[in-house]
Amino acid sequence: MFPAITVVGAGAFGTALAAVIAQTGKAQTLLLGRDPTVMADLAQLRRHDAALPGITLPSSLHYSAKAEDLASADVVLFAMPSQAQIAAAETYGPHLKAGVPVVICAKGIEKQTSRLLTEVLEKALPNHPIAVLSGPGFAADIAKGLPTAMAVAAQDLAAAEELAKAISGQTFRLYASDDRIGVQLGGALKNVLAIACGIVEGMGLGESARAALIARGLAEMSRLVEAMGGRGDTVRGLSGLGDLVLTATSHQSRNLRFGLALGRGEAIAAQGGALVEGAFAAAVAARLAEGHQIEMPITSAVAAIIDGRLDIPTAITQLMSRPITTE
User: Which residues make Cβ contacts (< 8 Å) with residue 140, sequence separation at least 6?
Assistant: First the structure.
């Protein structure tokens, strides 16, 4: 068990994770943010209304904006966006104790290199075991203490189980896995498919179309996971199917709302596409599929729509006119 846990990143998800961990009473829990003023306000008010409005944070949670406070952590959770992980490693890595596990709490793939985030951090933090947390969990639900289950994956199952036991609480349950590839790709690709589901809803194509898209999208996920050395079954669990069902059906999902706006014909720039994880992941996943010579037609169509290379009606026609195959 880890006596001290630090969550780096005081956005909605990082704050929610820190709150639920602190509530377990298993470890001294610190939330580390960049802005000293914000962190001082959190310590005083026990509220983060900009990220989690109306939620009171536990009195056992501690706050800091000092990177050197990482020196006491026995496990560290990186809860910043996927494209900020490398900068975080460079900023905070020098302050970590040797051998401290780092858990990635972002769902994405590095845009420039198409590398999984575990690969990115293993190179940046070579003396630290890298794990990944993913699955269906909105920050507000977690912070409110609503029942939530996610997956945590490490290089070996024993390490993942230790992390799961340390972080899980009465309302927040983690399931251990040793398939970091599958867990990461499930978390990243579900964002792309959530955009596609939003487009389906925005176009008024019906619930049957959404269900078909979820099922065929899951098949795409499995193909890429297996091609990259993971297990296809992993994405039929929490990080994959579970996360996809959540983000493909709930309007709390930014990726779904982004796709919904696209389906209604609204401009991409007006929807903050650069801030939506699925917008990064679509092009990267399409490149990975091409490189591994596998078919991911839904993912490729979403990437082409976002890049402006394909209009939505044509994409739908192309998908529906593909050759008939077996299930």
Answer: 12, 16, 52, 55, 252
pLDDT tens sequence across 242-263: 999 999 999 999 999 999 999 9
Closest CA to 102 of 165, 175, 159: 159
CA dist 81 and 108 (Å) reads: 8
Q: What is the spatial distance between Cα 196 and Cα 258, in angstroms, rounded to a whole number? A: 9
Burial of 54 (0-12, 13-18, 19+ CB in 10 A): exposed
263 within 8 A of 161, measured Cβ to Cβ: no
Q: List active site positions.
A: 190
C-alpha span between 150 and 137 (Å, rounded): 7
Q: Residue 2, Cα to own-chain centre: how many angstroms? A: 23
313 phi, psi to nearest 5 deg: -60, -40
Rounded Cα distance between 91 and 133, Å, is 21
CB 228 within 8 A of CB 287: no
pLDDT tens profile 79-138: 999 889 999 999 999 999 999 999 999 998 988 889 999 999 999 999 999 999 999 999
Helices (H) and strands (E) in the chain, counts: 13, 8
Query: What does residue 80 show for φ and ψ, rounded to 5 degrees?
Result: -115, 165
CB atoms within 10 A of CB 243: 29
pTM for this one?
A: 0.94
Q: Note the helical H segments in 125-172.
A: 139-143, 157-167
End-to-end CA distance of the chain: 45
